[in-house]
Design goal:
The chain has helices at 2-36, 51-62, 71-76, 80-92. It is an all-alpha fold. The protein has a single domain (2-92), classed as Cytochrome c-like domain (Cytochrome Bc1 Complex, Chain D, domain 2), CATH 1.10.760. The structure holds heme C. Residues 28, 31-32, 34-36, 43, 57-58, 68-71, 74, 86 line the site of heme C.
Length: 95
């Protein structure tokens, strides 16, 4: 029985960070879609921006380095890591 709990603890420890990262990026992205449409195509119809560029834009919103009306408040609701993972999710998904 002790071994069983050890096994469960090991599985949780090694799997959950990855699962959590994936799920939360996708869930955060659904929030973005409500205003921007899927894949942020409304914002960037003609060019494909990189994960690094999008992460920078989101962090600029969060730390008030850009004058905006809404995105500053939205981005403050997420950690830097969450913003980076949603940027990765949005820029690496298939078009
Ligand atoms: C409540 C509606 C709303 C939601 C939800 C929302 N946005 Fe925005 N977004 C805006 C508005 C409005 C602007 C224009 C800038 C401003 O005034 O805040 C904008 C601008 C942007 C820009 C433009 C950057 C540029 O090039 O100037 C990016 C990128 C962006 N949003 C990404 C996101 C991401 C990623 C999410 C999800 C975490 C998200 N937005 C969620 C309303 C929203």
């Amino acid at each position: 029985m002790k071994n069983f709990f050890t096994l469960v603890a090991v599985i949780i420890t090694f799997h959950s960070p990855f699962l959590t990262a994936d799920v939360s990026a996708k869930i955060i992205a659904y929030n973005c879609y409500s205003c921007h449409g899927e894949q942020l195509t409304i914002l960037y119809p003609s060019e494909k921006i990189s994960k690094v560029q999008l992460t920078k834009i989101l962090l600029d919103f969060k730390y008030d380095r850009k004058e905006v009306t809404i995105m500053n408040r939205i981005s403050k609701g997420y950690s830097d890591n969450e913003l980076e993972s949603v940027a990765t999710f949005l820029t690496t998904m298939e078009n």
